[in-house]
Specification:
Layout lengths: L4 H4 L4 H8 L3 H4 L1 H24 L1 H20 L4 H20 L1 H8 L3 H32 L4 H4 L1 H15 L14 H19 L1 H4 L4 H23 L13 H31 L4 H30 L1 H19 L8 H27 L8 H36 L4 H30 L16 H6 L1
Helix pairs in contact: 4-5, 4-6, 4-11, 4-18, 5-6, 5-10, 7-8, 7-18, 8-15, 8-17, 11-13, 11-18, 14-15, 14-16, 14-17, 14-18, 14-19, 15-16, 15-17, 16-17, 16-19, 18-19
Length: 464
């Protein structure tokens, strides 16, 4: 529900603009007002889960998100909708920051953990594609208000179920010198970073606005790191990054997600503006990716990870994503979905279904039960930063190239396609860099994980 809400609103933006009277410059903040708190609060929310209990934080986040969804649905003017979207992004961050931490805590054995992370990865990645289909269907058949109202019954059921099913947890260090200063520094740094990135579409990458806000975000982030080296109870234990697999997985994930956003955002535009698909057919057109991700994440990927280790599964996954994006970089202006688009979508779905569970396994490999919340928050933070960066860079480059082609006399369809092609190719390049880092930086297991070894303690598995 939380991931879906990041994309479901995109297809409803024209209806929201007409109904509430948004100006073109303000309309983007229907999306950005959700992204800024979401990206900025993940790290702090993950640590709060370690301090006061992940179940408490999870249910609190669900309650905030569900209430804010109701307020979004009843909004009657732009100010009310933007305020509610900010609160909704806050609830989404609080909820999602601790979910991966709960998964690795609930399933300590490698075999069961691989299955659980596969389910987690499927739900997370499929949410984006499902958002496009659900948003188009709800907006066309009822109204844009229902893209928010649909969250209310789901949120209530989820919160009640969590209260009954999940075991209660006690905080590990709450009240013992909790890092308030560090929390303020990192939250400010991350929010400012996301804000700076999303506003590059209006100000450009070399503008005084971007450079000054970016420098301020970097200064806050450096101050946070310096603070963590001296704090008796750091918000983010830097020892987590001593593992090459953990630190490498975080960076690789950011690059992979940045590249994949050229697909998630620009492929939708290609289907609608070049091939003439409506909202529902666009969602159906992207749906094969979700099917492929589900088939791999829920079935084959956990078995392969348990048998060969996450690095061995990650490498072919990144290779397939690189190839799929490169294939999209060749789509023609007069293309066909079946001939030109679908053959590229299948390797993208298969590759992501292999890569995402592998990266989640690597990123959480050094986390203890006391630190799983902050590790989960960090993993999700890198995903948000990567997606925001990828969307800003690739959409800017696509727009600039399209405008240049129009100035040279190209048709609208050809110019749009040329812009999308460039973005797809650069996205493929970003994932290719991630593949290179994975091949050179990540460590292979000493031996293949045989079925008999799958039941060994999680500490031994993480060491391998």
């Amino acid at each position: 529900m939380v991931i879906l809400d990041g994309t479901i609103v995109n297809v409803a933006l024209p209806s929201i603009q007409r109904d509430l009277g948004f100006s073109p410059s303000d309309l983007a903040w229907v999306v950005n007002a959700y992204l800024v708190p979401f990206g900025g609060l993940l790290l702090l929310s993950g640590r709060l889960g370690d301090l006061i209990g992940r179940k408490r934080v999870f249910i609190a986040g669900l309650s905030i998100f569900t209430t804010a969804s109701l307020l979004c649905g009843v909004s009657q003017d732009p100010a009310m909708l933007l305020a509610a979207r900010f609160v909704q992004g806050t609830g989404g961050a609080v909820t999602s920051a601790v979910t991966l931490g709960m998964v690795v805590t609930l399933f300590p054995q490698p075999k069961e953990r691989a299955k659980a992370i596969g389910v987690y990865s499927f739900v997370q990645s499929a949410g984006g594609s499902m958002g496009l289909l659900a948003g188009g269907a709800l907006t066309q058949t009822i109204s844009w208000h229902w893209i928010f109202f649909v969250n209310v019954p789901i949120g209530i059921v989820a919160a009640l179920s969590a209260g009954r099913v999940l075991a209660s947890e006690h905080g590990v260090r709450f009240g013992k010198g909790t890092e308030v200063v560090g929390a303020l520094l990192v939250t400010s740094a991350l929010m400012l970073s996301v804000y700076t990135i999303v506003e590059t579409t209006n100000y450009g990458w070399t503008s005084a606005h971007t450079l000054s806000f970016g420098a301020a975000a970097l200064a806050l982030l450096l101050a946070f790191v310096a603070r963590q080296t001296k704090a008796p109870h750091p918000l983010l234990p830097l020892r987590l990054f001593r593992s090459r697999n953990v630190s490498g997985a975080m960076g690789i994930q950011a690059l992979m997600v940045a590249g994949m956003f050229s697909f998630q955002f620009l492929c939708v535009l290609y289907l609608q503006k070049v091939l003439g698909f409506d909202e529902i057919h666009t969602g159906l057109g992207i749906f094969p990716v979700s099917v492929a991700i589900g088939a791999l994440s829920l079935g084959l990927s956990p078995k392969l990870i348990a048998r060969f280790g996450p690095r061995a599964v990650l490498l072919p996954g990144l290779s397939l994503i690189t190839a799929g994006l490169a294939a999209l970089g060749r789509v023609p202006a007069g293309g066909s979905y079946v001939v030109d688009v679908l053959p590229a979508l299948l390797p993208l779905g298969i590759g992501f279904g292999l890569a995402m569970p592998s990266l989640a396994t690597l990123a959480m490999s050094a986390a203890t039960p006391q630190d799983s919340g902050i590790a989960s928050g960090m993993f999700n933070t890198m995903q948000q930063i990567g997606s925001a960066f990828g969307l800003a860079v690739l959409s800017t480059l696509a727009t600039s190239h399209t405008e240049a082609l129009l100035g040279e006399g190209a048709s609208t369809a050809s110019a749009l396609t040329g812009g999308y092609q460039l973005a797809f190719r650069i996205g493929s390049g970003l994932v290719a860099v991630a593949l290179l880092l994975a091949a050179t930086l990540l460590r292979s297991p000493a031996t293949a994980q045989r079925p008999a070894a799958e039941e060994q303690p999680v500490a031994e598995s993480a060491a391998r």
